[in-house]
Amino acid sequence: MDQTHRIIIGLAVFLMITGKIFLSFAQVPPSSAEISGYSGLLAAAARGDAAQIKTLLAKGAKPDVRDAYGRTPLHVATYGGHHEAMQSLVAGGANPNTIENDRYDIVTIAAVANDVSTLKVALSLGASAKNITSRWDGTALIAAAHLGHAEVVQTLIRAGAPLDHINNLGWTALIESIVLGDGGPRHTDTLRTLVEGGANVNLADRSGRTPLSLARSRDYREMVVILQRVGAH
Q: Which of 5, 107, 160, 205 is deepest in the core (most CB within 10 A)?
């Protein structure tokens, strides 16, 4: 095995390990066991029971009560895609920008799930696309770019998400679409959406590698073409 092959294999192993690390710190929706143990607003949110939520709030229930994982009823309703429940909770005083134990908010939850309709509801309720979330000090935009969710990325850009935020790994959304993507259609569309949205195509990682050099090193040819067309170097 020559040195080039060793480097390629080493890089592949690193990316697989990195991917597993990312997954280990991914969002954790409530389990069936947790849901069965819920009561009050948390139980109503898990069912998507907007009428019960209104009743409980009128009786003085605290809208931002938390479960053992730090999830509020609004987080729980968002995981379930229960739009009316989300609306009732915020109307009753729930904070649309609260975060749970792993520092996820409802915008990032919807973004990671590729749930555009729930994302739009979250944004309409005052949730911010600018929040710094996750243990990686990232954003919903970075999370969506990592996963190749192009429509979510477009929605977040329109909502004012910070295009060039750098997480604690030294990566932007644009870089994550490359280094944590597979170079296929989803991630290529995501990169294109970021470029067209005005992302800085020359913002390098901590090692000084630009998006173009990262795409070239992975032989992601369509990404290379997109970047070259806008003057990336």
A: 107
49-83: pLDDT as tens digits: 999 999 999 999 999 999 999 999 999 999 999 99
φ, ψ for residue 19 (rounded to 5)?
A: -60, -40
- The answer as to whether 204 is a domain residue is yes
Q: What amino acid occupies position 36?
A: S
Domain enclosing residue 212, as ranges: 130-233
CATH, residue 164: 1.25.40.20
**Backbone CA torsion sign across 151, 155, 118, 190:** positive
Angle at 125 between CA 122 and CA 126, to 5 degrees: 95
- With 0.85 as the threshold, say if the pTM is over it: yes
Q: What is the pLDDT of residues 106-153, one digit of tens each?
A: 999 999 999 999 999 999 999 999 999 999 999 999 999 999 999 999
